[in-house]
TrEMBL record:
It holds the Pfam family MDHAR3-like_C. The lineage of its organism: Eukaryota, Rhodophyta, Bangiophyceae, Galdieriales, Galdieriaceae. This is monodehydroascorbate reductase (NADH). GO terms for cellular component: cytoplasm. Its cofactor is FAD. Coiled coil: none annotated. PANTHER family: APOPTOSIS-INDUCING FACTOR 1 (PTHR43557), RIESKE DOMAIN-CONTAINING PROTEIN-RELATED (PTHR43557:SF2). The chain crosses the membrane at residues 6-23, 43-60. Residues 375-452 form the Monodehydroascorbate reductase 3-like C-terminal domain. Residues 41-358 form the FAD/NAD(P)-binding domain.
C-alpha cells in the first residue's frame, strides 16, 4: 500500500497535479506525502441569500458531484426569497413562513428545502462567518477557527441595512427601532406589529422598504407616518407625476406623509425603549414603534483589500469574474458592465439581478464565455397595487405618462431622437408586462408627437405593436 501511495504521488507530481477529489474530499500531494483537508471543496459560495440558492440549483443542473459545493452563510436557515419579508411575511393571510419561500419559488421554480441540499450532497455551513480570505492559497478562515479551501469562489454576500447607529445618531440604539433585511428582522418586526395594533408607528424612508412596510402596517391596523427628506416617494425611479399617484393613494389608505425633514435623533424612556423621533425641522413624532428603511450598504469588507473595487462593489468583467479570475462576484456586491448600454458600469441592488448573475456565474465556471446581458428590472407590490419597470432612465430622456392609477398606469422614458429606453406599468396584465419588457429591450424609435397623442394607458400600450 505504501508503495502504491509513493507511486501515485510521484505520478501526480510529475503531471503537475496537486491532488484529486474522492468522496467529496480532496487529497493533496506535497513532497510525496498525502494530507487531507477537512473542509475542501471544488466550489464555494460565500453568502446564503437569494443568489446562493439560484447558484446551487444551477450547479446541480450542471451535474456536479456530491461533496463538491459548499454554501457558507451567517444565517441559520437555507437560502430564501428575501422579497417575501416585506410582503407575504408581514401581511399574508396566513402570513408566509419558511419553508414556503425558500429559493427558487420566487421565479416559479422548485422550492429548495434544506433536505434538497442534503439530497444533492451540498454542504450548508450555516450560522458561520468568514473572517478572512486568502486568494493566494484559495483559503477561507471561519470565525470557528476552521478553514475551507476552494477552486472557484462565488461571493454573494449581499447588503446590510444602513442603520442610524452607524451614523452616530443620538438614541439610535433604543429598542423598538426596527430594520428589515433578514428573517430574524422580519420575525421581530411582525411580533412588534401584532402588539401594536390600533396604535401609531413611524416609518423613516420613502423607498422600497418604507413604502412596503407602511402598506403592511396599515393592513395590520397600525396607523403610520412616513418621513423622508426627498421631494417624493421612490425618488430614485419615480418621476414627480408617477409619485403623486402613489402618495395620493397612500393618503387615502390613512398613511400620513412628511416630505422634506429628515430624522435628527430618537428619544426613549428609562427602560431604553424608543418613544419618539425628532425631525430636523423640530417636529417630534411620538411612537414606540419605528421602522427604518434608509438604504443598504454592500457587504464587501471581506475582500476590499484583495479585489478591485468600483462604485462600492467588486469590479467584475462580462463573465462576472473579479480581478482574481477564480473569484466571481454576484448580486449587490458586484459592479458590472451593462452590455446593452455600451458596457456602462453599474451596481444593481435587486433580487432579479442577483438571481440572473448567480446562474450566469455558474455557466461561466462550466465553460461559457457569454457576456452577462442584463435588462434592469424593478418591481413592487403594495396594497392591491403592483408596478414593474424595465430599462433605463437617463438624464436626457423625458418620461411620458399615460392614464391614471385607477387602476392602470403606463409610462415610457423617451430620448430626444424618439428612442424608448424605459417602460413602467401599474396594474398591468401578464401580457402587458411581457410587452413592456420587450419594448425596453428592443428600444424602438417612435414618433414622439404621435405617442404624446395617446391619453389612456391602453392607448399608450397599444401604440406599440
Amino acid at each position: 500500500m505504501k508503495g502504491l501511495t509513493r507511486l501515485l504521488s510521484t505520478t501526480l507530481a510529475a503531471a503537475g497535479i496537486a491532488g484529486f477529489y474522492f468522496g467529496g474530499k480532496r487529497f493533496i500531494w506535497n513532497e510525496g506525502k498525502r494530507s487531507m483537508a477537512a473542509k475542501d471543496y471544488r466550489y464555494v459560495i460565500v453568502g446564503g441569500g437569494v443568489a446562493a440558492g439560484y447558484a446551487a440549483r444551477a450547479f446541480v443542473e450542471k451535474g456536479i458531484s456530491k461533496g463538491e459545493l459548499a454554501i457558507i452563510s451567517e444565517e441559520a436557515v437555507a437560502p430564501y426569497e428575501r422579497p417575501a419579508l416585506s410582503k407575504g411575511f408581514l401581511i399574508g393571510n396566513p402570513p408566509a413562513r419558511l419553508p414556503g419561500f425558500h429559493t427558487c419559488v420566487g421565479s416559479g421554480g422548485e422550492r429548495l428545502s434544506p433536505q434538497w441540499y442534503t439530497e444533492h450532497g451540498i454542504d450548508l455551513l450555516l450560522s458561520k462567518s468568514v473572517i478572512q480570505v486568502d486568494p493566494s492559497t484559495k483559503t477561507l478562515k471561519l470565525s470557528s477557527g476552521d478553514s475551507v479551501r476552494y477552486d472557484k469562489l462565488i461571493v454573494a454576500t449581499g447588503s446590510s441595512a444602513v442603520q442610524f447607529t452607524d451614523l452616530g445618531f443620538s438614541g439610535a440604539d433604543h429598542r423598538g427601532i426596527h430594520y428589515l433585511r433578514n428573517i430574524q428582522d422580519a420575525e421581530k418586526l411582525y411580533d412588534a406589529i401584532q402588539a401594536h395594533k390600533g396604535k401609531e408607528a413611524v416609518v423613516i424612508g420613502g423607498g422600497y422598504i418604507g413604502m412596503e412596510v407602511a402598506a403592511a402596517l396599515v393592513q395590520n391596523q397600525v396607523s403610520c407616518t412616513m418621513v423622508f427628506p426627498e421631494a417624493h416617494m421612490m425618488e430614485r425611479l419615480f418621476t414627480p407625476e408617477i409619485a403623486q399617484f402613489y402618495e395620493d393613494f397612500y393618503r387615502k389608505q390613512g398613511v400620513k406623509i412628511l416630505k422634506g425633514p429628515s430624522c435628527k435623533s430618537f428619544i426613549g424612556n428609562e427602560n431604553g425603549h424608543v418613544t419618539g423621533v425628532v425631525l430636523t425641522d423640530g417636529t417630534q413624532l411620538t411612537s414606540d414603534l419605528v421602522i427604518v428603511g434608509i438604504g443598504a450598504k454592500p457587504n464587501t469588507k471581506l475582500l476590499e483589500n484583495s479585489l478591485k473595487m468600483e462604485q462600492r462593489g467588486f469590479l467584475v468583467n462580462a463573465q462576472l469574474q473579479t480581478s482574481d479570475s477564480n473569484i466571481f462576484a454576484v448580486g449587490d456586491v458586484a459592479t458590472f458592465p451593462l452590455k446593452m448600454y455600451d458596457n456602462r458600469l453599474a451596481r444593481v441592488e435587486h433580487v432579479g439581478n442577483a438571481r440572473q448573475m448567480a446562474m450566469h456565474a455558474v455557466d461561466v465556471i462550466f465553460g461559457s464565455q457569454k457576456a452577462y446581458d442584463y435588462l434592469p428590472f424593478f418591481y413592487s407590490r403594495v396594497f392591491d397595487k403592483s408596478w414593474k419597470f424595465y430599462g433605463d432612465t437617463p438624464k436626457d430622456a423625458t418620461c411620458l405618462v399615460f392614464g391614471e392609477m385607477n387602476p392602470k398606469l403606463f409610462a415610457v422614458w423617451v430620448r430626444g431622437n424618439g428612442q424608448v429606453v424605459g417602460t413602467f406599468t401599474e396594474s398591468a396584465t401578464p401580457e402587458e408586462e411581457k410587452k413592456i419588457e420587450r419594448i425596453a429591450r428592443e428600444r424602438p424609435v417612435v414618433d414622439i408627437a404621435k405617442l404624446k397623442a395617446c391619453r389612456t394607458a391602453e392607448e399608450g400600450l397599444n401604440f406599440f405593436s
